[in-house]
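User: Here's a structure from my thesis project, written as structure tokens. My advisor, Dr. K., wants to see whether a designed sequence matches the one we expressed. Can you design one independently, without my sequence as a hint?
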């Protein structure tokens, strides 16, 4: 897209620079989230999303959060994050880990 088309688009949609920057920021976040999700096995991501929301295919947002939450929980337990599996035993370990943190740490 050349400069003229870009500014014509801005004028046509009456976007302010702040709205445009906000849109770029949002798209940048989506790109990062997509790259993170793409680093995991597709079947494991789908399985996790089905547990999170059986009708996950209609979700437009919040696809990244369950993947990131499970990966971070596994990282805290020093487990393989790529399994994305935080079963009942690991959930108990996480609860105990957080209970043992002081208020300054948490």
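Assistant: Designed independently from the structure alone:
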């Amino acid at each position: 897209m050349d400069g003229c088309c870009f500014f014509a688009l801005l004028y046509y949609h009456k976007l302010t620079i702040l709205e445009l920057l906000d849109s770029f920021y949002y798209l940048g976040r989506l790109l990062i989230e997509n790259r993170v999700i793409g680093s995991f096995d597709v079947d494991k991501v789908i399985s996790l999303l089905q547990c999170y929301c059986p009708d996950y295919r209609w979700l437009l947002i919040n696809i990244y959060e369950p993947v990131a939450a499970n990966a971070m929980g596994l990282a805290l337990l020093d487990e393989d994050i790529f399994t994305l599996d935080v079963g009942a035993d690991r959930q108990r370990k996480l609860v105990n880990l957080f209970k043992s943190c002081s208020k300054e740490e948490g």
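When you compare it with your expressed construct, this may help: The first helix runs from residue 3 to 13.
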